Amino acid sequence: MRGTFDLSGKIALISGASRGIGQAIALALAEAGADVALAARSTDALEAVAAEARAHGCRVAILPTDVTDLDQVRGMVDRTVEHLGRIDILVNAAGVAQRSPTIDLTEADFDRVYAANIKAVTFACAAAGKRFIAQGSGKVINIASLTAALGLPGRALYGSTKGAVAQLTRSLAVEWGPHGICVNAIAPGWIDTALARPVLRDPAFRAQIIARTPIGRVGEPDDLGGTAVFLASSASDFVTGQVLFVDGGYISA
Asked: Is pLDDT at 2 greater than 60 in this prediction?
């Protein structure tokens, strides 16, 4: 990575970094030169990702974190600064899925999904935002979903959290723009991750997704890496409040 896409000297905190999209983004940022703080619940899984990140020559901090605990959410920002000296980039990739008819949802389902998918994102942004405002710079990358703009059966609860992430992104971009902070979101389409694999294993459903996707395939986590590097780098210094769909054209079909 060179020029405006070079992240050398930058410090990035990535939640949900132990697998899937979070892992792919963490490794892409490390390859672009950033030092990375990796947050997720599984220490063993984080150790494996850390080993790959260190292969790019960067510094790595491992931060075991349960994002449903707000003290831990705030703490992961503080620990990033403690271990790596500052924070320049926040990636909110941790999240949970929920697929069920709305009439079958329980209050526990609601609380669990909202806690991980929007409450944690809001307070992680707030904790990092205090640091960013003080230093007059910062990049926030939230992970939304195509369900932020497209209704799907059985996804009302999940989609409502991702719609909230999209609106949080726009609102923070306006609120924090005067402080030199850019806030954007990536909205993945059908990506072959542990969250989506239960439905993508169905050959008929997978074929239906591929048939609608102009690129003609299901996405891979690595397909998100380049977009994340762009949004984290100086190449996107005049880009804020945007929800970028990385979906192979699915939402446009």
From this structure: no
Question: Tokens at residue 92, please?
Answer: 């909110």
- Give me the residue spans of the domains in the chain: 3-245
Distance CA 41, CA 22 (A): 13
The residue annotated as part of the active site, out of 158, 176, 190, 250, is 158
Give 28 or 194, the one with higher predicted confidence: 28
- Its pTM stands at 0.96
pLDDT tens string 49-88: 999 999 999 999 999 999 999 999 999 999 999 999 999 9
Thinking of the domain 3-245, which architecture would CATH place it in? 3-Layer(aba) Sandwich (3.40)
> 114 an active-site residue?
no
Structure tokens at 145: 């979903």
